[in-house]
Amino acid sequence: MSFLSTSLARVKPSPTIAVTNMANELKAAGRDVIGLGAGEPDFDTPQNIKDAGKAAIDAGKTKYTAVDGIPELKKAIVAKFKRDNGLDYDTTQVTVANGGKQILINALMATMNPGDEVIIPAPYWVSYPDMVLLAGGEPVIAEASIQTGFKLTADQLEAAITPRTKWFIFNSPSNPTGAGYTAAELKELTDVLLRHPHVWVMTDDMYEHLVYDDFEFATPAQVEPKLYNRTLTCNGVSKAYAMTGWRIGYAAGPKELIGAMRKIQSQSTSNPCSISQWAAVEALDGTQDYIPENNKTFKRRRDLVVGMLNDAQGISCPKPEGAFYVYPSIAGCIGKTSAGGTKITDDEAFAKALLEEKGVAVVFGAAFGLSPNFRVSYATSDDALTEACTRIQDFCAGLS
Predict the structure, then answer these.
(1) I need a labelling partner for 123 at 20 to 30 A (CA). Which of 47, 141, 348, 390 fits?
(2) Looking at domain 63-285, which CATH architecture does it have?
């Protein structure tokens, strides 16, 4: 009998972290590697937020806090949901955790029973299916193709729902595609959910503020208020405020669910970092002026990457509405052989050969549930992106 839990056999390590680690190891060995796998902004945390963290230390706010968040942060979250999304919550409906990831796993651990199903549109963030498996549930993958802009249709959602469905996990703008659902597109999905009152919505809005052109963000409970009492609206400060290392995620939803999530957290990590919580208060309540400025940079980088990748032979790259990822198709490269002699049988082979031959690290599409594609994070400098895309063009030109 194995000493390790049988539940552990149901999950796998994060492929995105694995790619980043591999790129770092090659760099440490002296290789010229450009990493496009990390899902975090390259901007520094804004100064007012850092100052708030320092002030918290100086004021001695370094003790345990309430299990799922200080009252001041919960009030800031309530104000944020009202200001940005038109959603009314009170502080008893809010929970704060050690990053957005813990919010999601707390909700799943608090609600899943054996045999429960969770609908996950693909391409998906790599952790969604494994979180469901770890919580004892069964992920049901509904593929959204490049033909629909990587967005799930109402018919696809309807077809995926069964009597065992407990949650629908929704992410817009999306990691890995950057695809964002308009309010009208989202309304088509919420109309389906209204016909199935046993299905709850877990909406991951982490990239809410990272949107471009004329796209306007919307979230399910905002679009369809009738879903308010069975929606967990999840968010965090990691992406918009460049606070990935501070580890603060939050959510709002029905009191019973929030209480159950609090119970899970009380017996696992207990409270999030006290200093990070005070910094997050400033992030939400303080100036938001740098967000549109950062978005101008991200938009420029998106347009650069999309243009250069579409000039690469065999690659087709849609222009996404938000986040800082693109998800190009390599359908035109499959079956060919690289200049280094690697047969491109699938997107994993493509990504490995690209790293080995050209020193560009990307994440292969199978990790996100839809092939043949790969994910590029353009949260890095223009120079690095230009060089990386030039190398990708050269790699594709060498395929035969």
Answers:
(1) 390
(2) 3-Layer(aba) Sandwich (3.40)
d(CA 256, CA 268): 19
pLDDT for the residue 178:
98
Buried b (16+ CB within 10 A) or exposed e, 239-272: bbbbbbebbbbbbbbeeebbebbbebbeeeeebb
The number of beta carbons lying within 10 Å of the beta carbon of residue 184 is 9
Residues of the chain below pLDDT 70: 1
The whole-number pLDDT of residue 312 equals 98
Q: How far apart are CA 225 and CA 298, in angstroms?
A: 32
SS3 376: strand
Cα–Cα distance for residue pair 30/232, rounded to 1 Å? 46
Q: What share of the chain is helix, strand, coil (3-state, %, to 5)?
A: 45, 15, 40
64 φ/ψ angles, rounded to the nearest 5 degrees: -55, 150
Instruction: Pick the closest to residue 218 from 348, 61, 84 (CA basis).
Output: 84
Query: How far apart, in whole angstroms, are the C-alpha atoms of residue 326 and residue 309?
Result: 10
CATH assignment of 6-44+290-397? 3.90.1150.10
What is the C-alpha to C-alpha distance for residues 75 and 94, in angstroms, rounded to an integer? 9
> What local confidence, expressed as pLDDT, does residue 147 receive?
94
CA angle 77-234-138, nearest 5°? 160
Give this prediction's pTM.
Answer: 0.95
